[in-house]
Design brief:
By secondary structure, the protein is α+β, with helices and mostly antiparallel strands. 15% of the residues lie in helices and 31% in strands. It has a two-stranded antiparallel ribbon. β1 and β2 (47-58) form a beta hairpin. The radius of gyration is 22 Å and the shape is flat.
Length: 75
């Protein structure tokens, strides 16, 4: 059986970085914001019983930028 070589099976060391460091990735995500969205459906015999939807906005908060609401926010 012939299989493809994946990076962790390669006996030679990798040359160069593989991706973005986690700290840089988090800095970019929090600076610009990201929306996480997903659905989970629990079904039995192809009959959907429960549906859960997730919609979240992840972003950083800055005191230098005023809130768009007059009273400080919807909470």
């Amino acid at each position: 059986m012939d299989r493809d070589i994946v990076p962790w099976d390669n006996p030679e060391p990798l040359t160069g970085p593989i991706g973005v460091p986690l700290v840089d990735l988090l800095d970019r995500v929090l600076a610009t914001g990201v929306v996480v969205s997903g659905d989970l459906v629990i079904a039995i015999a192809d009959v959907p019983l429960v549906r859960l939807s997730l919609h979240a906005l992840l972003s950083s908060v800055s005191e230098r930028i005023p809130a768009p609401w007059a009273d400080g926010g919807p909470l």
